[in-house]
Amino acid sequence: MKAIKRYVHIFRGVKLPWISMLAYLIFSLVEVTLGLQSVELSASIIDASQSTIDAQRLVRYAVNLILTVAATVGETYFSGLLEQKIGAGVRLKVWDKLMRLPLSYYDTESPNDLVSRVTSDPGSASSYITTGISCITTVYATVVAFRQLFIFHKGLATWSLLIIPCTIGVGAVYSVMAYHSALLGARNFAKTTGYMTEHVHNLRLIRALGTERYEKQKSHGIFRRQYWTDLYSRSTVAYMVVGLQALSCLSLIISFVAGGRMVAQGTLTVGTLVIFYGFSSMVAMHLSNLFMAVGTIIGTNGELKKISCLLDQADEPQGGDEVTGEEDIVFDNVSFAYKDVPVLENISCRLRAGRVTAIVGTNGAGKSTMMKLIERMYDPDEGQITFGDREIGAFNLTSWRHALAIVAQDTPLMSGTVRENLTYGIGREVSQEELTDAVKLANAYDFIQETPGGFDAQVGPGGSSFSGGQRQCLAIARAVLRRPRYLLLDEATSSLDAKCEADVSTALDRLMEGRTTVMIAHSFRAAREADDVIVMDNGHIVGMGTPEELLRTNAYYQTFARRGDKEAV
User: Fold this and answer.
1) Closest alpha carbon to 103 in 395, 372, 424
2) How high is the pLDDT of residue 415?
3) What does R_g of the chain's alpha carbons equal in angstroms?
4) Residues ≥6 apart with Cβ < 8 Å to 17
5) How far is the C-alpha of 126 from the C-alpha of 89, rounded, in Å?
6) CATH at residue 30
7) Which of 124, 140, 307, 481 gets the most CB atoms within 10 Å of its CB?
8) pTM of this prediction?
9) Coil, strand or helix: which one is 361?
C-alpha cells in the first residue's frame, strides 16, 4: 500500500481511460464467473451421463464455452488498450517534465537512463493499473471458488486449505526474484544500451586507434553481465511455471487421494469429485496469479521509483515579467560551482547594452559558465545577476531566452529539412523572402542552393551532411531570424579552417550590427574589435577595459595580443 500511495502522483494529470478500465474489469469478472460455471456444468454432465445424455446441459456448456472465449477476447483487447493508453499518457508526462527541468539535472543523469525513463519505464506504470485490476478479479475468483468448495464438501474443502500456505511460499519467493530481476534488468540494459550507443557512434575513432581487441574484451564483460541478467529473468519465469505445476499436482493429490476413497465408499459422486478438483485447481491457479501480480507490482517498483524521482524534481521557474528594452547585464559578486568544484568566484562586471563585450582567458577560466549563467541555464550559488536594476530571475524565462540568440562553438542541427532547422524555435511564420535574406546575410545562401533540394533538403543526424563552417552559418541564419536583442557568441569561429572562419566571421559581423553582443573570443582579431574586454583566469576576473587599455595594463592580454599577431603573420 505504501508503494501504491508513493507512486499515485505519477498518474496525476494523465487522462486515464476510465471506460476502458471499467470494460477490462467487467470482462475479467465475466470470464472468471463463466469459468466457475463451466466447472459446475462439467460435473452435472458427468453425473447425468451415467444414466443418459442431457442435450440441454451440453448446449448450455457449449454456449458457456463460447461466451468464455468472447469474454477472454474482450479482456485481452481492453487490457492491451488500457496499457497502451496509460503508457502513452505517462510517457508524454515524463517527456514534458524533462523539457521543464533545469540543466543542472542533466549533469547528474546518464542520457541513456533518461531515454529509458521515456521509452520503457512508462510500460511499468501502465502495468501497475492492469495488474491492480487483475488482483481484484483474482481475489473475487478465489473467494467464490473457496465458497463453492465448502458448499460441495466441507471435509475435502478443509484439506484444500493446504494450498494456501504452499501458494504463499511459492508467491513470496517469486516476488523477491521478480524484484531483483527487474532491478538487474533495468540497470544492465541501460549499461549495455549506453555502451552500444557510444561505441557505434565512435566506430571511426576505434578503427583509427586500432582498439578493436580492447573493446572486444571490454564488451565481453558487459555482454556477459547482460547474459546472466537475462538468464536470471528466465529462471524467475521458469520457477513460477514449476511452482504452478507443483500447486496443480498438490490440488490433484488432495482431490483424488482423499476424494477417491469417498467415491469408493459411495459418499461422493464422480461428478462432485470432478467439480471439487476443478474448483481446487482454480483456487491454486488464482492464488498463484495473485502472488504473480504482487511480484509484478514489486518488480516494477524500481522503474516507478525512477519515474517518481524525476517527477519530484523542481521545474525551471516559469513566472515573471516580460523582457522589454535593452539594459546593462551586471554580475555582482557571483560565485558558481559544478558539483562542489568552484568555477567562478566573486566575479563582478558590467556588460553594457548596445556594445560588444569580448571575454578572453585560459581554458577552464569560466568563460562558458558565464554564458550559461546569462542564458539562465544555471543560477548563481552566490551573488546576483541583474538586468537594469532587477535580478534576472524576476523575468519570465521564456521571454528572457527569446531576447537572446546563441551561436556556440558546435551548434548541432536537428533531423528534418534545412528550412525546419532555420525556423526551429522562431515561433512565428517566416516568409521565403525573409528566409532568403537571412541565409544571404549568414553566407549560407550559396551552399544551400548547391545542396540537392535546397531549403527542403534533409539534414543528416546532428547536421552530418554539412561541414562545421556550414553548420555555423546556418546557426547564424537562425539567430538572424530570431531578431534578438542580445547576441551570445561562445567561441563561434573556433575549430574552423581559415576560409570557413573568414566566412563565418563576416556573417557574425553583419549579425552583430546594432546588437548588444557578448562573445568568448579565441582570436585577438575578434577581441581587438570589441568595445570592452574582460580577461579571466581560474574563475576570477583579472582585467577589464577597452582593448587599448588592456594592451597597456594587463600581462595576459599582452601575451594574447602577441600570439594573435604571430598567427596573423
Assistant:
1) 372
2) 79
3) 35
4) 81, 82, 85, 86
5) 9
6) 1.20.1560.10
7) 124
8) 0.71
9) strand
User: Which residue stretches of the chain have pLDDT < 50?
Assistant: 565-569
How far apart are the C-alpha atoms of 226 and 194, rounded to whole Å?
13
Q: Would residue 541 be called left, alpha or beta, if left means φ above 0 and alpha means ψ between -120 and 50 degrees?
A: beta
Report d(CA 150, CA 229) in Å as an integer: 44
Give 334's strand partners.
347
Q: Give the domain-ending residue among 254, 278, 312.
A: 312
DSSP-H helix ranges across 153-211 = 154-160, 163-201, 203-209
Burial 273-295 (b: 16+ CB within 10 A, else e): bbbbbbbbbbbbbbbbbbbbbbb
- Cell numbers 517566416 correspond to what residue? 430
Backbone angles phi, psi at 403, to 5 degrees: -80, -10
Domain match, 362 and 402 both: yes
Residue 406 DSSP SS3: strand
Q: For residue 8, is it within any domain?
A: yes
The SS3 assignment for 511 reads helix
- Encoded amino acid at 239, one letter: Y
**Nearest CA to 324 among 239, 244, 403, 430?**
403
What is the rounded CA–CA span in Å between residue 401 and residue 160?
70
Q: Are 335 and 360 in contact (CB under 8 A)?
A: no
Q: Across-strand partners of 335?
A: 382
Residue 126: which region, alpha, beta or left (left: phi > 0; alpha: psi -120 to 50)?
alpha
| 80 grid coordinates | 492491451
Q: By residue range, what is the domain housing residue 9?
A: 2-312
Rounded to an integer, what distance in angstroms lies between the CA atom of residue 429 and that of residue 434?
A: 10
Closest among 402, 400, 406, 409 to 329, alpha carbons compared: 400
Nearest of 275, 251, 382, 236 to residue 42 by alpha carbon: 275
Residues 243, 356, single domain; the answer is: no
Query: Helices (H) and strands (E) in the chain — how many of each?
Result: 22, 12
Number of structural domains found in the chain: 2
103, 265, 377, 534 from 314: Cα distances, Å: 11, 73, 14, 34
* Same domain, residue pair 422 and 543: yes
Alpha-carbon distance of 191 to 92, in angstroms, equals: 24
CA pair distance 174, 182, nearest whole angstrom = 12
Kindly report the number of other CB atoms within 10 A of residue 396's CB atom: 15
What stretches of 468-512 adopt beta strand conformation (E)? 486-490
Summarize pLDDT for 292-350 with one digit per residue, the tens.
777 667 666 666 777 888 888 888 887 888 888 889 999 999 999 987 789 999 999 99
What cell numbers appear for 41 in the block?
456444468
Cα 288 versus chain centre, distance: 33
The total number of residues shown for the chain amounts to 569
What does the pLDDT look like over 487-540, one tens digit per residue? 888 876 665 556 666 766 777 777 787 888 898 888 788 888 889 999 999 999
